[in-house]
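Severity: low
Component: inverse-folding endpoint
Summary: output formatting inconsistent between runs
Steps to reproduce: submit the following structure tokens with default settings.
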């Protein structure tokens, strides 16, 4: 059970780093709309994945 929790925490870290990276890129190069779509998808997808990971962890 601890290994599943550790994997979930690692995924949270990767999602957070991805969101930060997308935010930095958008601030440096505000032009490409494709990056804005990537940011929107990432921001919508991250909580969904997090909820799924927590439910899998507790379902055990």
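Observed output (run 2 of 3):
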């Amino acid at each position: 059970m601890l290994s599943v929790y550790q994997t979930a925490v690692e995924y949270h870290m990767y999602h957070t780093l991805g969101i930060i990276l997308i935010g930095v890129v958008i601030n440096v190069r505000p032009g490409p709309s494709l990056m804005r779509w990537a940011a929107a998808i990432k921001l919508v997808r991250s909580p969904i994945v997090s909820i799924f990971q927590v439910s899998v962890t507790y379902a055990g």
